[in-house]
C-alpha cells in the first residue's frame, strides 16, 4: 500500500467517539489522578449514564465466606451477601453475570475480574437489559475492577471493608506478602487460601507467571506469632529474589536456605516447596523441602501423590536438592498443602489425616467446576470436618493445567 493509499484509508475510518467509548473513556482519563474516596461516586455516575440505579459494590471478605458492601457516596447501602447460595455469590464464583428480574426492572450482578481473579461483584438495577447493555456493563465492570486494584495500593478502605473481625499483627504481615489469591489464563488456573484467616502467622505462598513458566512457592515457617511471620517474610523475599534472578530450582533452594540461616541461626527453619510448570508442555518440576507430597488429581479424583525425595527444610544447610519431574495431562490438577491441614487434632486424638483430605477432594472434585470454587469449598469443608479448629496454620494451593495457547488474546478481530 502506497503512502497515498494509507492516507486515503485513514480518511475513510470513522474515528468519531461513540457513547460507549465516551463512557469508558471517562474512567480511563481520570483513573491516574482519582483519589480513592472518589471511586464510589464515579462508579455511580458512570452506571447512571447507562440508565442504571441502586449501584452496589461488594468485595470478598478475607475468609471467603461473604461479599461485603463497599461504602461510599453514590453507592446504595446493602447487606453482606453469602458467597454460597446468593445471586452475587453465583456471579462471583462463576465469573459470569447473573440477571434477576424484579418488579422495578432487572437486577444485574457483574463479577469484578482482574487478572483472572475475582475481586467482588458490582450490582446495578436497570429497567431492562439487552445485548448492548450487557456488553457495556461487562466492560465497565472490568475497568472498575482494575481501578479498585490500582487504588488499593494507597488506601486502606478496601482492606478495611474486607475484614469482618480484628486481624492479628502477624496475620497483617502475612497478608501483605501474598500475591492475588487466584490467577486464571487460558493455559492454567491457580487459587490458594490461608487458615486461620485472621491469625495466620508462618504459612505463605507466592507465584509468578514468567513467559511460559509458572513459578509457585509454598512456605511454612517454624513457630507462631511474630517470629513465624518474620521468618516467612524472609523466606518469601529470598524466594522472590532468587526467582527474579532467573536461577534454577537448586539455586533457589540454596538462596532461601542461606537467608534463613543467616537471619535466624541454626535453630531457625522453614519447610518449603518450589515448583515450576511449563504451561505450554505441562512439564512440572519441583523441590520438596519438608512438605507433604502434593496430590495429583485426574478426572476429578486423586490419582496419587507426587512422591519425591525430600531435602532438609531451608535454614538447615541441606545438600543440593533432588529436582523431581512429572508430565501432566491436560485437565490435571495439583493440590499443594502444608502439614497444619492434616495434623490438626485434639489432645490425645488422632490427626485429621491425609485420607480424610483425599476423601474430601474426591467429593468436591465432582461438584465444583473451577479451581477457585474447588479450593474454597475444600477449605471450608475441611474446617467444618475438623470442628472449625485451626490450632496451626494451614494452606491450600490448587492449580490446573489446561494447555493450549493464549495468542488469540493479543489479536484484534
TrEMBL record:
Keywords: Hydrolase. This is PPM-type phosphatase domain-containing protein. Coiled coil: none annotated. SUPFAM superfamilies: PP2C-like. It comes from Streptomyces daqingensis. It holds the Pfam family SpoIIE. The keyword Transit peptide does not apply. Residues 185-401 form the PPM-type phosphatase domain.
Amino acid at each position: 500500500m502506497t503512502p497515498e493509499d494509507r492516507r486515503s484509508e485513514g480518511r475513510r475510518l470513522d474515528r468519531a467517539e461513540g457513547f460507549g467509548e465516551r463512557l469508558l473513556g471517562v474512567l480511563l482519563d481520570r483513573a491516574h489522578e482519582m483519589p480513592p474516596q472518589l471511586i464510589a461516586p464515579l462508579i455511580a455516575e458512570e452506571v447512571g449514564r447507562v440508565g442504571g440505579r441502586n449501584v452496589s459494590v461488594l468485595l470478598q471478605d478475607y475468609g471467603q465466606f461473604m461479599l461485603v458492601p463497599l461504602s461510599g457516596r453514590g453507592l446504595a447501602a446493602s447487606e453482606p451477601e453469602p458467597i454460597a447460595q446468593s445471586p452475587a455469590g453465583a456471579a462471583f464464583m462463576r465469573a459470569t453475570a447473573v440477571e434477576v428480574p424484579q418488579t422495578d426492572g432487572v437486577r444485574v450482578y457483574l463479577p469484578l475480574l482482574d487478572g483472572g481473579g475475582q475481586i467482588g461483584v458490582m450490582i446495578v438495577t436497570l429497567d431492562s437489559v439487552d445485548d448492548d447493555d450487557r456488553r457495556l456493563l461487562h466492560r465497565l465492570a472490568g475497568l472498575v475492577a482494575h481501578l479498585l486494584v490500582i487504588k488499593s495500593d494507597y488506601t486502606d478502605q478496601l482492606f478495611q471493608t474486607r475484614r469482618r473481625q480484628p486481624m492479628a499483627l502477624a496475620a497483617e504481615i502475612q497478608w501483605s506478602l501474598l500475591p492475588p489469591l487466584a490467577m486464571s489464563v487460558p493455559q492454567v488456573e491457580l487459587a490458594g487460601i490461608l487458615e486461620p484467616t485472621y491469625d495466620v502467622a508462618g504459612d505463605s505462598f507466592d507465584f509468578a507467571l514468567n513467559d511460559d513458566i509458572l513459578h509457585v512457592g509454598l512456605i511454612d515457617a517454624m513457630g507462631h506469632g511474630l517470629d513465624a511471620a518474620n521468618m516467612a517474610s524472609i523466606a518469601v523475599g529470598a524466594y522472590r529474589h532468587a526467582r527474579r534472578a532467573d536461577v534454577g530450582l537448586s539455586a533457589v533452594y540454596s538462596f532461601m536456605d542461606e537467608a534463613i540461616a543467616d537471619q535466624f541461626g541454626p535453630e531457625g527453619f522453614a519447610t518449603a516447596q518450589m515448583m515450576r510448570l511449563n504451561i505450554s508442555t505441562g512439564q512440572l518440576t519441583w523441590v520438596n523441602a519438608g512438605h507433604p507430597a502434593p496430590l495429583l488429581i485426574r478426572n476429578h479424583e486423586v490419582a496419587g501423590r507426587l512422591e519425591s525425595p525430600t531435602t532438609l527444610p531451608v535454614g538447615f544447610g541441606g545438600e543440593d536438592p533432588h529436582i523431581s519431574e512429572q508430565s501432566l495431562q491436560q485437565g490435571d490438577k495439583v493440590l499443594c498443602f502444608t502439614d497444619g491441614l492434616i495434623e490438626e487434632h485434639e489432645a490425645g486424638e488422632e490427626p485429621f489425616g491425609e485420607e480424610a483430605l483425599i476423601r474430601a477432594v474426591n467429593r468436591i472434585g465432582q461438584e465444583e467446576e473451577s479451581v477457585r470454587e474447588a479450593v474454597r469449598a475444600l477449605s471450608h469443608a475441611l474446617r467444618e470436618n475438623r470442628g472449625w479448629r485451626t490450632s496451626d496454620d494451614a494452606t491450600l494451593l490448587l492449580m490446573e493445567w489446561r494447555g493450549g495457547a493464549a495468542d488469540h488474546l493479543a489479536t484484534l478481530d
